[in-house]
Amino acid sequence: MELLVRRRYWPPCLAVSVMALALAMSAFYFDLSWDGQWYHQVGIYTIARDWNPLTEPLRDFTPQLHSSVRHFAKGPWYVAAAIMKPRLL
């Protein structure tokens, strides 16, 4: 019976350990990819400064960024802008 209990807790413990390791490693990584520097960065900076995509979803951007910034999911951008906002003040 004790062996079954250990087997039951092993997968969740392993998953939490892998996620903690991934989170710790990601603290030392900065996204230098092309799309990360292109439209993600513009979206985060714009949200941190003055853009609210919920009240102004059709804001104009430069032509090459227009469709990418307006139509991609913005959930992670909100978190990144909230982390970055104190640095802009």
Task: Report on this structure.
The protein has 89 residues and is mainly α. It has two domains: 1-30; 31-89, no CATH class. The chain has four helices and no strands. The radius of gyration is 19 Å and the shape is elongated. It starts with a helix and ends with a helix. The mean pLDDT is 83.
Mean pLDDT: 83
Terminal Cα span:
58 Å
Looking at how many chains there are and whether they match, the oligomeric state comes to single chain
**What's the tally of helices?**
4
Order of helices and strands: HHHH
Based on Cα principal axes, name the global outline. elongated
Helix content: 55-70%
- Count all strands and give the number: 0
Q: Largest sheet, described in full?
A: none
Helix and strand topology:
Layout: H1 2-26, H2 34-49, H3 66-71, H4 75-88
Helix pairs in contact: 2-4
Summarize the structure.
By secondary structure, this protein is mainly alpha-helical. The protein contains four helices and no strands.
Protein traits:
elongated; 2 domains; 89 residues
